[in-house]
Amino acid sequence: AEERLRTEGPNELEKPPKPTLLMLFIMQLTGFVIVLLIVAACASIVVNATGPKAGDPLAYTTGIAIFIIVLINAGIAAWTEHKAGDALEALSKMTQASIYVVRDGKEVKVDVPCVVRGDIVVLGTGDVVPADMRMFEADDIKVSEMALTGEPDDVVKTWKIKARKEGEPEKLTPANCVFSGCSVTNGKGKGIVTDIGMQTRIGRIAQLIAGPGGAAKKTCFCLPDTSGSATPLQQNLEKLGGRIGVLAIVVCVAIFIIGVAMDRTDPSNPDSPAWLYMILIAVTLAVAAIPEGIPLCVTISLSIGCSDMVTKNVLVRKLAAVETLGSASVICSDKTGTLTEGKMTMVNMYSAGVGYDVGGKGFDPTVGTITRTKGGQEAVSDLGVKTALLSAILCCNTTLAKVKDPESGEEKWEPKGNSSEAPIVVAARKIGFSETVQKEYPRVLEIPFSSSRKMMLTVSDMGNRNELCPNGYQFPSGTKYLTVCKGAPNFIIEYCSHQLAEDGSMQPMTQADKDKVLEQVDEYSSKA
Q1: Are 255 and 205 part of one and the same domain?
Q2: What sequence ranges are listed for the domain Cation-transporting P-type ATPase N-terminal (predicted)?
Q3: Is the pLDDT of residue 477 over 50?
Q4: Domain residues for 62?
């Protein structure tokens, strides 16, 4: 895998090269107002260098001052954007998507860019397909291909190879293949990676878009693409610069024509021609008319705003975006990993008519305990908690283990499997169940979760047990298998006829009992 990653490159779409600090600096000099100031500064220096004050060093003060202001303005803007870009790049590496692959016979978690051709990828409900793959295991798996084809309906996938009939057109998305960027909406499966990065279907589409006729026009061949809608501030500055420039040119031309027509000469040098003196006057007027302080004032103001936002943990890549963000009343942001850590934690549970609080955060089962909401007593010996959590983890495909962080070298608890099931497994470990408890009840059948069924079902072999957990509910004589169902509470509860009592026995479930459970579900949901 390492050799293929080195020779074939990472599994990611090509990105435009990151602009260097020098490129960012040059890009700051392309605005209309800035160009106008540069032209005015050059004209001022040239005219003074060829005029009667050619030998006077103070004659170049105006032009040099404008140049210094322009350079300071460009330097501040370029440095701010460069630092923000570095910080955002570091954040993107921290939040890289990951997937489970089979290597050396073991399931390991790898970052999506590290997936290579030939990898066996394990897919489950909610996963995003990391690369183009051919399926060889498919358990009721469905994939949303809207990102690729635009079709809203989920597509059923299979491991079977269907031969194409003569004259039948080739399908864009064969039934035994899944493609990069598509999400798994139901079931689970395994597949072998056939294409990565720009060789995937989505990568080829990206190449076609960026190809001849599809690529956006650049400001300059040596600068990165800066196409896109300008902010209101940028638009207003461009309009202001244009109006000032046109007005200055019109006034200067008019003064030049009138001065030449009136034969105005330099009082200090009457022998010089009138047109040379009037050019000097016109250029001086143009330089004075252009507000060279505006770009610097705007840049400094935006930089201060950017610095204030950094103190509130908001990174701004483009300086001009600060002004636009100040006008925003609603911000739409991805919650997971942005506003939250991306780690679900169980904080409450309800079993046998009793509410419980689950302490601790994250995936460490050694931190926090399960206690009764009323009274605060520890629930280690409560049969309702033990029965509910054992039943729940028998209907889970997620395990919990310690792994070593490759960067820090420290060991930390990490779940392997579905992120929604991880809190259940962590809570079960907190109540005292071992990491091998799922193997003690071998699974003989599984019906995966489906968005249409809204439930998942497993059948486990009970062996010679006559009770689910010590001193718990007694199974009827001859019981060999235990069926556990999990899913949407309001959907499942309609099929329930009995409920677990606090002493571990089974009691009939009335409509009042069902309403009480649903009320508790609503109460927990309102706290989410």
Answers
A1: no
A2: 1-44
A3: yes
A4: 2-93+232-326
pLDDT tens profile 323-356: 777 777 888 876 666 677 667 889 999 998 899 9
Residue 225 inside a domain? The answer is no
Give tens-digit pLDDT for 486-516. Answer: 988 988 998 899 998 887 788 899 999 999 9
Q: Are residues 464 and 395 in the same domain?
A: yes
Which parts of 344-492 fold into alpha helices (H)? 383-394, 422-430, 489-492
Q: Count other Cβ atoms within 10 Å, centred on residue 220.
A: 11
For residues 441 and 38, give the distance between their C-alpha atoms in angstroms, rounded to a whole number.
79
Residue with tokens 């909406």: 185
Q: Any idea what the CATH number is for the domain that residue 74 is in?
A: 1.20.1110.10
Nearest Cα residue to 469 out of 429, 499, 441: 441
511 within some domain = yes
From residue 377, how far is each of 302, 365, 366 by CA, in Å? 55, 19, 18
Q: Number of folded domains in the chain?
A: 3
Q: Whole-prediction pTM value?
A: 0.56
- The dihedral region occupied by 135, where left means phi > 0, alpha psi between -120 and 50, and beta the remainder, is beta
Mean pLDDT of the chain: 81
> What are 205-253's pLDDT values in tens digits?
877 776 554 444 454 544 555 545 566 776 777 777 778 778 878 888 8
Do 381 and 509 reside in the same domain of the chain? yes
User: Are 425 and 305 part of one and the same domain?
Assistant: no
Any idea what the Cα angle at residue 263 is, between residues 258 and 266, rounded to 5°? 105
Domain assignment present for 262: yes
Identify whether residues 311 and 285 lie together within a single domain. yes
DSSP string over 271-322: TS-HHHHHHHHHHHHHHHHS-THHHHHHHHHHHHHHHHHHTTT---SSTTHH
